[in-house]
Amino acid sequence: MSGNWSWEVQVYGATLVPVILSSDKTQLCQFRGDKTAYPIYLTIGNILKSICNKPSFHAQKLIGYLPTISLDGTDISANSACLTHVQLFHYAMWMVTSSLRTGPLTNGIELISGDGVVHLIFPVLAAYVADYPG
Question: Domain tally for the chain?
Answer without folding.
Answer: 1
